[in-house]
Fold:
Amino acid sequence: MPPSPRYGLWLRHLHWLTAALVVVAIALAELHHYAPRGSALRSGAMYAHTQFGLAALLVLLPRLLLRLAGRTPPVEPPLPRWQHAAARLVHVVLYALLLALPVLGMLVYQANGRVQDFLGLPLPALIAPNHDLVRPIEVIHIQLGDLLLWLAAAHAASALWHHWGRRDTTLRRMGYGGRRAS
Structure:
């Protein structure tokens, strides 16, 4: 039996779940900025943002294990060497951002003296309250979040270009539908 032209089913599920969680987390962060200061909407949006960010981190861990343990289906027709190297670099940076952003968010929360929870369960403190650290960590979190937004958009645009422009199997490897073998 020939190898599958797609990533494994669980890896595909976790990929699209991660994408959805990140989109919602970013939307909630933006909503937070537009809500009036001191409003329930503003604090609720920020709390939900942290929950979706932590959920993305939770999903990332099994995703990384599956990605490292599984095989990578080849792109047909094969990519030029520079595109393959660029794709690998983008994936490494995306994974690093998906790991770093929730941790930085937790550090901001905890440096501000608040107890961080996930779905009502308290999380262990990574740092002691220190108000001098709040703003510098928050700035890094926001800048890396912007980088994640732009890199994820470039990732999605590249997948669409590969699918409709180059007409290769890049996007189909992470998809669900398509033709069945006869």
